[in-house]
Specification:
Blueprint lengths: L10 H14 L4 H23 L2 H4 L5 E2 H8 L3 H13 L3 E5 L2 E4 L1 H4 L10 H7 L2 H7 L2 H7 L3 H6 L3 H5 L5 H25 L13
Helix pairs in contact: 2-5, 2-7, 4-5, 7-12
Length: about 200
């Protein structure tokens, strides 16, 4: 994916998008457009609850939203609204009004599970990605990348600036979790037995 200047292993994403597109073909046109228009809200809310470690707080079982807010240092009313929305799209469960629980999807946003996607969820709407994607109109008009418009340089040069060290840490954690999630599939798909040394470059 190079629109923001960040390149990642695209194959798993492309395979996921094939499933998404197949499901989209079965949706009414108006529903498809509305889902696309409001999708960024789900993404941002999911990223925010991951950043505040809401899934970690729910690992031992459901909690009422006031208790969940107290455990995570979040605002009760704001958290309640966000959790209701995320439950409505199946990312969390609301077994009874105001009481929230993990689903198989949100279990993956815990920080302590194998294959955790928490770091990726946090990174995807962090400044390094959220701000450049917000310049898409400029990208389409000029062909210049989002980071170049937003930061005045490529994203990796921006990462190395002292003020952006925390963004670099977030990005590296996300890439590590992403690699962990696909490494077994790569190892199963290719015979590496003839090699004595493997190096990941770039």
């Amino acid at each position: 994916v190079a629109v923001t200047g960040v390149q990642t292993c695209a194959l798993p994403i492309l395979l996921l998008m094939e499933d998404v597109m197949a499901a989209a073909n079965e949706m009414p046109p108006q529903a498809l457009v509305m889902q696309a228009l409001f999708g960024f809200m789900v993404t941002k809310c999911l990223s925010a609850v991951a950043a505040h470690r809401i899934p970690d707080a729910l690992k031992d079982g459901p909690l009422y939203y006031t208790d969940l807010a107290q455990a995570t240092g979040t605002d009760q009313k704001a958290l309640h609204r966000v959790m209701r929305m995320l439950s409505g799209v199946g990312l969390f469960a609301e077994p009874e009004p105001g009481r929230y629980a993990l689903t198989p999807a949100s279990q993956l946003l815990r920080s302590d599970v194998p294959g955790s996607m928490r770091d990726m969820a946090v990174m995807i709407t962090s400044a390094s990605h959220w701000l450049p994607w917000g310049r898409m109109e400029d990208v389409l008009r000029t062909g210049v990348s989002g980071p170049q418009h937003e930061f005045g340089t490529d994203v990796f040069t921006w990462f190395q600036q002292d003020a952006n060290h925390d963004q670099w840490v977030i990005f590296n954690a996300a890439m590590t979790s992403f690699s962990s999630g696909v490494s077994h599939a790569v190892a199963d798909a290719f015979d590496f037995s003839r090699f004595t040394r493997l190096v990941d470059i770039g």
